Amino acid sequence: PLLGNATILLTIWSDRTLRDPMFYFLAILSAIDLALSTSSVPRMLGIFWFDAHKIGFGAWVAQMFLIHTFTGMESTVLLAMAFDRYVAICTSLHYTSTLTPRVLAGIGVSIIMRPVLLMLPILYLTHRLPFCEARIIAHSYCEHMGIAKLACASIHINAIYGLFGLLILDVALVGISYTYILRAVFHLPSQDARHKALRTCGSHVGVMCVFYTPSLFSFLTYRFRKKIPRYVHILVANLYVVIPPALNPIIYGVRTKQIHEHVVHTFTSK
């Protein structure tokens, strides 16, 4: 994840032709992936390599906040990229006048502030819970529902807010955006135009599938834990924070022509 995302960031920073809104969002996504990997992978490696299972409650809550904040930022970036594709395909003549530098700056601020504000109730909901004596979380990193499950009280509010406040809303908005996109694509006059429009969305759809599929599975597993083996849940939860940061640079590096050509030129010219 570190090498791939660092390559994407250096490519976009060094190539002055990559200044479209799509590359702006891609740079933010790579930066978030770097931060997510940094906040989750070292702790996971400490558990697997050095059998370091203990963690203080403060570090516990801090890691929960960071991981959910960064995954929330990634979800918000994917939502912004869906909006970018909607404007590019459905209102292509107004693309530059819609996604102005001021609008992009506002979206950038929203990407940072929205997940932070959504996480503040999570901190309160977790802090108010009375915890039992045994504080053993069956995960390699600290997540909201894994911590809430240790409480000796009802956690229905935590479960509802964690599912709908942090994930389902973004999935629904992305789904609505792509409903309009597909409707516009299939109304294009020529088949070549339809293929070209769908091809521009291919990378984004791939990244969304890589991110939302394990995240939805991990969230819903808490509701159906008795039917799903614990080791399967732990494996998917690990993939949720490791696989997207690792695959996003590969998907965009291969599917995005400008980035692919720049990287190939950089390595072949030396």
What can you tell me about this protein's structure?
With 270 residues, this protein is mainly alpha-helical. 79% of the residues lie in helices and 0% in strands. The protein is built from 10 helices and no strands. It has helices spanning 2-14, 21-50, 57-90, 95-98, 101-127, 144-148, 156-185, 191-221, 230-255, 257-268. The mean pLDDT is 81.
List the helices and strands and how they pair.
Layout: H1 2-14, H2 21-50, H3 57-90, H4 95-98, H5 101-127, H6 144-148, H7 156-185, H8 191-221, H9 230-255, H10 257-268
Short description:
The chain has 270 residues and is mostly helical. It is built from 10 helices and no strands. Helix 7 (156-185) packs antiparallel against helix 8.
